[in-house]
């Protein structure tokens, strides 16, 4: 197979490239002849031009590298940006019924340990009746349905809803309440009432141990 391809490529090359290659070859031959036949001023002139050409190319190469370095360093993320790319939170101290607020990529995040009653409340809802239909299971991890992790950003206009801190109003559905324009979220942080079009967003997350969750 490979033999056949090689034969074809060598057969085509002369037909296409010969006319263009001929002058270059003749120039190269003349230059070489000049260098060989004139060991005096002209021969050293050719070598000097060659040196200038090589030096110019080398310098251009260094220049390109010098320009490329800042671009590469600009493209690589700084350490603090990388640190914000994901966070790890130990949730062991969050009791059922409690929530905490944390921050990830400069956005508030709610981590909530749902009680059995709150899980039941979320599961008995007719999902088809929801504005943004999702089950609690779809918004949590298998075996960890009590851990509801969402962005603390109202999907209406971006306010931070209430309900994550102790004593805050949780709204008519026991989840979160955004007082800006009156959006109510249920115990699965799904929109149930008010102008917000979508449920509170669930970020990418995974439990990396029984109690430590990695967000991002
Ligand atoms: S921003 Fe939350 S209801 Fe308007």
Automatic annotation (TrEMBL):
Binds 1 [2Fe-2S] cluster per subunit. Residues 112-214 form the Rieske domain. It catalyses: a quinol + 2 Fe(III)-[cytochrome c](out) = a quinone + 2 Fe(II)-[cytochrome c](out) + 2 H(+)(out). InterPro entries: Rieske_2Fe-2S, Rieske_2Fe-2S_sf, Rieske_Fe-S_prot, Rieske_Fe-S_prot_C, TAT_signal, Ubiq_cytC_Rdtase_Fe-S_su_TAT, Ubiquinol_cyt_c_Rdtase_Fe-S-su. Residues 1-23 are annotated as: Disordered. Component of the ubiquinol-cytochrome c reductase complex (complex III or cytochrome b-c1 complex), which is a respiratory chain that generates an electrochemical potential coupled to ATP synthesis. This is Ubiquinol-cytochrome c reductase iron-sulfur subunit.
């Amino acid at each position: 197979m490979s033999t056949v391809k090689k034969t074809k490529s060598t057969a085509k090359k002369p037909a296409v490239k010969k006319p263009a290659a001929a002058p270059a070859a003749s120039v190269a031959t003349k230059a070489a002849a000049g260098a060989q036949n004139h060991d005096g001023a002209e021969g050293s002139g050719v070598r000097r031009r060659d040196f200038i050409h090589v030096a110019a190319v080398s310098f251009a190469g260094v220049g390109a590298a010098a320009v490329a370095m800042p671009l590469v360093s600009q493209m690589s993320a700084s350490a603090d940006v990388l640190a914000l790319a994901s966070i790890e939170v130990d949730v062991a101290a969050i009791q059922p019924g409690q929530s905490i607020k944390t921050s990830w990529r400069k956005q508030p995040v709610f981590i909530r340990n749902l009680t059995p009653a709150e899980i039941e409340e979320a599961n008995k809802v007719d999902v088809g009746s929801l504005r943004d239909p999702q089950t609690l299971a779809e918004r949590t991890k298998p075996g960890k349905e009590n851990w509801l992790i969402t962005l603390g950003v109202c999907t209406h206009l971006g306010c931070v809803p209430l309900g994550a801190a102790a004593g805050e109003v949780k709204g008519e559905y026991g989840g979160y309440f955004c007082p800006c324009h009156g959006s109510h979220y249920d115990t699965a942080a799904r929109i149930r009432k008010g102008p917000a079009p979508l449920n509170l967003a669930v970020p990418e997350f995974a439990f990396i141990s029984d109690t430590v969750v990695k967000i991002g």
